[in-house]
Amino acid sequence: MFSSVYSAAILGMEALSVQVEADVSDGLPMFSMVGYVNSQVKETQDRVRTALHNKGLGLPAKRITVNLAPGDMRKEGTGYDLPVALAILTALGKIPPQKLAGVMVVGELGLDGKVKGVPGILPIVHKARRLGFRACMVPWENEREGQLIEGIQAVGVKDLQEAIDWLKKGGKEVRGKAGQAWPLMTAEKGEKADFRDIRGQEGAVRATLIAAAGMHNLLYIGSPGSGKSMLARRIPGILPPLTREESLELTEIYSIAGMLPKEPPIIGQRPFRSPHHTISAQALAGGGRNPRPGEITLAHKGVLFLDEFPEFSRRALEILRQPLEERCIHISRVQGTYAFPAGCVLVAAMNPCRCGYYPDLNRCQCTPAQVRRYMGKISGPLLDRLDLCVETREPTYEQISGEKGRVSSAELRETVARVQEIQRVRYGDGGIQFNSQLDSADVERHCPLTEEARQCMERIYTKSRLSLRAYHRILKVSRTIADLEQSEIIQAAHVREAFGYRMMERV
Asked: For residue 137, what is the DSSP state?
């Protein structure tokens, strides 16, 4: 007898429908699985056979063939266990076929019949809703995650017997509520790191505020212990809270990566990713035979912090050039090309030389050639994509012990929210959210200059021999500075300040 059950596979950031077909017929007893499956999926037959046996549902001595269609798409993971078991039971006549109509199934089986959690549940339930399924059967520990999607019932089951009972009853017993909105954590909740802890560094704090307001890439250069990491780690705390749509987008990314927290199963804060400098290019950008999100995607809508910037491998750093421009990274494989979002703020930190104390000749022992060699580890094209570069200096004793000039994260967050609201109103529904996303045509349209500012920009461009990219980035930073000053037209002072942050032109 033949039966089929619908499941799903994750390819890149998309969930694709997979039809699990089972046929039980007379012949030499055997259990075979076909449909371009890897070794993980082939092991499904052993888990399913043992789980059925331990639940008192032993398989008869017949020929069992399971096919995962479409056959030209490689199947990976353990999420096909439960649909394979239900397809076989349906083929054996133990579950009425009509009970599985309109139900998508995913889950891993333990040898005792328990259903275990799998990654990627949120995009799978989302796909099931778009395809018109009435319900999606998922592992119990993934139920709350699946119920974030409105318009479809996500049913969590603890073991195989519970799945069978639910289907036989026609799926009438419902737990939980679809589309429930789990409370999102705002920037204030659980945020212990505050900008008030920063001593001195008024210039660096100002540059950080500009970077956060316009979502510009930022580079800190300074001696060890001057506060570069402290500044970077406080940036998420001054960004506005995530909207529900942004939160669900991030939750899908972390669900696919298998990194979703259990309580609550949603990403409610802007991510801050700080990989070690030994990270590989594939781990930073994403990859694998079936590509998975890398650090730049996990930092989407948040901050990717690269400390000890020159110590990263040249290959890992150069792979960032394209996604920093397009805010999306494309990974090509034989099966196709996969697009992963990469709309993060890149924040990097580095020392001015290998010992870290240049140009303090009392402590720095590096020769000019060694300093140039150290700085030369970062390519010019990559530096060109960093909008702001600021030097962090060791604070004086008066700055450490005093309160003057210190500002809290709450105050900065209020300013950032106001400036980002200005940008939202200005760009409307044109697909642009922040000043950093402007292309060359948008820069001409949205960055009007006074005559004095235009002349100032002309002198800067001519004397500094800027690239066209650097020219546009200065204008975009000027636009953000003008927004901070609530000025619709960019003034000469805004242009000069923006150019002052182009220290990388002299690195």
From this structure: E
